[in-house]
Design brief:
6 helices, alpha+beta, about 110 residues, Arc Repressor Mutant, subunit A, elongated
Length: about 110
């Protein structure tokens, strides 16, 4: 048994396993959670669950300024949850496969609550 500073007895093997688990690279997960920590961005994802939408729809429904909305959309795009395409003068946003999967996980979490 290994005794750590607080006098808690733990086997060397178990302590090493705990150390291995703590060494994971959580950078990608953290970036997604940071993006998901804003209600406006979650609303955008939910809106896109139904259909691809133009920025003007987000402005109308969310009551955001274009500059604020642009920032939210940029963050969602950077982590790969949404993508966009140009149709004439309009940018049309849609969920990516990753975005759909993340929304499924959010639904699962909501079901637990």
């Amino acid at each position: 048994m290994t005794v750590i500073p607080c006098s808690y007895d733990i086997s060397s093997e178990r302590l090493e396993r705990v150390r291995e688990l703590s060494r994971g690279d959580f950078k990608d997960v953290i970036s997604i959670f940071k993006v998901l920590s804003d209600s406006t961005r979650l609303k955008i994802l939910r809106m896109l669950e139904g259909d691809s939408l133009c920025v003007c729809v987000f402005v109308e429904v969310l009551g955001c300024r274009y500059s604020a909305l642009s920032y939210h959309l940029k963050l969602l795009k950077e982590v790969g949850l949404i993508d966009c395409r140009r149709e004439g003068n309009f940018l049309i946003y849609c969920l990516t496969g990753r975005g759909r999967e993340v929304l499924k996980r959010i639904d699962e979490i909501e079901d637990l609550m």
